[in-house]
Design brief:
Layout: H1 8-22, H2 27-69, H3 80-94
Length: 95
């Protein structure tokens, strides 16, 4: 059992020290409040993750819609001048 990088022996030591400091009457109350704090942190974390995923999906959908609406860019056709220049250049390089 490894929680937050703390093993079972370390957790037992922390429990014993807390028992000595706070006493047996106060310890369950502290445990409850700590549990509530951890639970609220987990809830906030999961809410943040779901909001982040929702925003990422909206952005992705917007980009796909934009890509579908943009006209396809067709490269200009090669003109005779470009073809003749390429032919002249290649014949010059062969010499």
């Amino acid at each position: 059992m490894n929680v937050f990088g703390i093993g079972l022996p370390e957790m037992a030591l922390i429990f014993v020290v807390a028992l000595l400091i706070f006493g047996p009457k106060k310890l369950p109350e502290i445990g409850r409040s700590l549990g509530k704090a951890i639970r609220s942190f987990q809830d906030a974390s999961s809410e943040f993750q779901s909001e982040f995923k929702r925003e990422a999906e909206q952005i992705e959908q917007a980009m796909q819609t934009t890509a579908e609406l943009e006209p396809k860019q067709i490269p200009p056709a090669a003109t005779e001048e470009t073809v003749s220049t390429n032919t002249t250049t290649s014949s010059t390089q062969q010499s």
